[in-house]
Amino acid sequence: MQAHAEETLSTVATPAAIVASAPAPATKPFSLPTVVTIALGHLVHDAYTSFLSPLLPLIIPRLGLSLTLAGSLAAFQQLPSLINPLLGMLGDRFSLRWLAILAPSVTGVAACLLGVAPTYGALAILLLVAGIGTAMWHVPTPVMVARASGSRVGFGMSLLMLGGELSRAIGPLVAVAAASLWGLEGMWRLIPVGVAASIVLYWRTRNLDVKPAAHVGGAWADAWRELRRVLLPIAGIIATRTFLSVSLATYLPTLLTQEGSSLVEAGGALSILMLAGATGSFATGTLSDRFGRRRVMGAVLTCAPLMMAVFLSVQGWLMAPVLFVVGFLALSTSPVMMALVQEYGRSKPATANGLYMAMEFVGGSLITVLVGALADAVGLRAAFAISAGLALCAVPFVLLLPQPKPTAPRQP
Question: Which domains does the chain have, with CATH numbers?
């Protein structure tokens, strides 16, 4: 899902609250067991959120859905992101550790019951619950990792992001394997994994101090004044490049099954795409530190649509390596935008994180429905091609991005 291709993406957890919310770097040692536990929790949680896309080829004929309705299901899962700014504001004032602890259980139960939902409305409700679990997880966990990382906050955040990105590669395989083995009705057997993750998270973080710093505020208006120079061009980028990312993350398995691939092959292709996105996200964040945010964003946003055109023109074994390159480029821009948001929102990091995530998820939700409607009108393959063309329109917005603020010197 785009909630997961961008999540990461998409959507995906951000390095929020690492400046104002973290203690002085020298005051606490790096807690590898705690950070790894939260990163593995991220993997488990986001694996559940990636179930919808590979299961759509089974859900669509089962309930007789159009592609427009199928796309709106993804929108329901992302709709609760509207509460991210509120959670961010609360996260700058109170500890939200319990929300993170409960999130894998909440999301896991909802995701594993998708196969038994008898109607479109029941599916929508389950996806709304899964989306609430996603919001519960992604706002507080960056703060928790920052607090557990001491002076090595960057390394801690890298581990957290890696867990989330890997989930998008593993989740589709797990969903397809479970559906093939037990059928859609038997996927409830995966619920205990989420419950176990919540128990382990509670135990491993029980002594973690996640109380916000006393001087941190979370007013949305103040955060917007700090962030508008960067959020406005980012909004333009999201409104254009997201057509490409949601086409791939949501509709790739459906496209492939329509054109003769098996469900296992389609799920494997989605895993290749998400693994490539994980690799690309790790690379672009590092490269943007060295070569600049705008330069890296411009290169990626230019090359991704061109590689999508190549993917649509090849067949057979060539599809796999080309798909990897497409995923590497198309799903790799979020870390760079996250870095820009954090550089401009240091005084209210959780609030800034919530505003950005709401923009990302809401944009993804709306565009997912638009791509579904476009596919109903002209076909999925044509919709993919049109989405690639629209994604090229993101490049001019890169020129409007401000230069990043200089980072504060590291304390000894």
Answer: 2-398 (1.20.1250.20)
Residues 288 and 310: their CA atoms lie apart, in Å, by 26
Name all contacts of 254-263 with Cβ < 8 Å and 24+ positions apart.
Answer: 254/56, 254/57, 254/60, 254/67, 254/70, 254/380, 255/380, 255/381, 255/384, 257/57, 258/380, 259/381, 263/54, 263/57, 263/58, 263/176, 263/179, 263/180
Distance between CA atoms of residues 289 and 409, nearest Å: 15
The residue length of the chain stands at 412
Q: Which helix (H) or strand (E) holds 250?
A: helix 220-258
Token reading at 372: 């579904």
Burial 261-299 (b: 16+ CB within 10 A, else e): bebeebbbbbbbbbbbbbbbbbebbebbeeeebbebbbb
HEC sequence for 377-404: HHCHHHHHHHHHHHHHHHHHHHCCCCCC
Per-residue pLDDT tens for 266-303? 888 888 898 888 888 778 777 777 788 889 899 999 99
Selection from 46, 165, 55 nearest residue 108 by Cα? 46
Helix, strand, coil shares of the chain, percent, nearest 5, are: 80, 0, 20
> What's the CA gap between 226 and 279, in Å, rounded?
31
State which amino acid sits at residue 239.
Answer: A
Question: Dihedral angle at the C-alpha atoms of 248, 253, 254, 259, nearest 10 degrees?
Answer: 110
Give the single-character DSSP code of 185.
Answer: G
Q: Which two tokens stand for residue 378?
A: 């002209």
Global pTM value: 0.68
Burial 180-195 (b: 16+ CB within 10 A, else e): eeeebeebeebbebbe
pLDDT tens for each residue of 78-102:
778 778 777 767 766 666 788 899 9
Residue 364 exposed, middle or buried by CB count within 10 Å (0-12, 13-18, 19+)? buried
